[in-house]
Amino acid sequence: MSRRCELTGTNRQIGHKVSHSNIKTKREFKPNLIDVTLSSDALGQNYKLRITAAALRTVDHRGGLDGFLLKANEDELSTRAAKIRRDLKKKLAETAAA
Fold first, then answer.
1. CA of 10: how far to CAs of 6, 15, 55, 92, 93, in Å?
2. The dihedral of CA 48, 50, 52, 58: what is its sign?
3. Phi and psi (nearest 5°) for 85?
4. Rounded to 10 degrees, what is the CA torsion of 73, 97, 41, 78?
5. For residue 78, what is the domain's CATH number?
6. pTM here?
């Protein structure tokens, strides 16, 4: 299982652990990933995603999964999230045309 947020694309970062004597050794900073189930109002389905805690706050701020996906850049999304976004846009286009 990769250490990458499915919505924002946040990945692990590499840095240095610096000791008191200023010796630097490599270390990694892992994102705060959580498993959540988010529901899409337009599609009427629930989706299990692995996202960061910061992304979860952003989803709440933008009004749910639908609002987040409509504003998100497709390059940052995972393949699953990009497919959900395409399905959402298709569904909204159908309802607007009808």
1. 8, 15, 9, 28, 30
2. negative
3. -65, -45
4. -30
5. 2.30.170.40
6. 0.86
Predicted confidence at residue 10, as pLDDT, reads: 94
Reported as a pLDDT band with limits 50, 70 and 90, residue 97 is confident
Domain count of the fold of the chain: 1
Residue 39: per-residue pLDDT: 96
Residue 53 lies in domain: 13-97
Give me 32's structure tokens.
Answer: 């705060």
Residue holding tokens 């200023």?
22
**Residue 70 placed within a domain:** yes
d(CA 74, CA 55): 15
- In a domain, residue 5? The reply is no
User: Average pLDDT, whole number, for the chain?
Assistant: 95
